Amino acid sequence: MTLLHLFDLDGTLMYGSAAPVEISRQLGKASEIAELERAFGAREIGPHEFSVAAHGLWADLTPAHVRAAFDGSPWLSGIREVWQEIRERGDYCAVISLSPSFFVELLLEWGAHAAHGSVFPEVPFTRPVEVAGILTPEAKVDVADLLCERFGVTRGDCVAYGDSMTDAVLFEVVSRSVAVNARPYLAARATHVYEGRDLREAYQLLGAARPGAEAS
Fold first, then answer.
1. Which residue of 19, 36, 161, 165 pairs with 99 in a disulfide if CB–CB is 3.0 to 4.6 A?
2. Cβ atoms within 10 A of the Cβ of 200, count?
3. pLDDT, tens digit (0-9, with 9 covering 90-100), for 139-163
4. Contact present, 213 and 198 (Cβ < 8 Å)
5. pLDDT tens digits, residue range 160-186?
6. Residue 59 phi, psi (nearest 5)
7. Which of 40, 67, 70 is nearest to 52 (CA)?
8. Sheet holding 114-118, edge to edge
9. Distance CA 77, CA 192 (A)
10. Interatomic CA distance for residues 162 and 147, integer angstroms
11. Hey, what domains does the chain have and what are their CATH numbers?
């Protein structure tokens, strides 16, 4: 059976941080993004409002800032190794994140078959962000369905990895899920729960559940 592994980014592939936070640090906007993150976590604002406000904070953003943010982010260990193993098995791996597409798509360099984020203008910005392109938790499922069609699999062949409420909708529709350093709400709804900083260890939790695979 071919599997499609669907990875969240913020707080999942990235330990204790998020792409907007790392981007904002490059511009000296740490306190401003922290307030937006707080408001989003408290559900005072939604993904659309968050993204429009973040776009406003990043008026001076350059490609060099984006690359520095990406390279300096606190990634889990073993991401590229896991994705290489997934590829060698004949499976697929993709990233679906509410974070900006210009950051998320850099993960294609590490071996993801696909990477989808909220659609932002090209950096440096010359246009406003289009609200229609901003992903929501529900839209993650829509993207997952498109990926299933692309790779010839079904929701029953998917494994979702996530850490927060924004991943809950996707967790509900796939056959297996891995809560990675997750909030209690999501951990209680996951097939597997992982706490740590190495994606290889989280991936190994699936060993016994995969048909034909040996447990680690």
1. 19
2. 15
3. 999 999 999 999 999 999 999 999 9
4. no
5. 999 999 999 999 999 999 999 999 999
6. -60, -30
7. 40
8. 114-118, 92-100, 4-7, 158-162, 176-180, 192-194
9. 19
10. 17
11. 4-16+75-209 (3.40.50.1000)
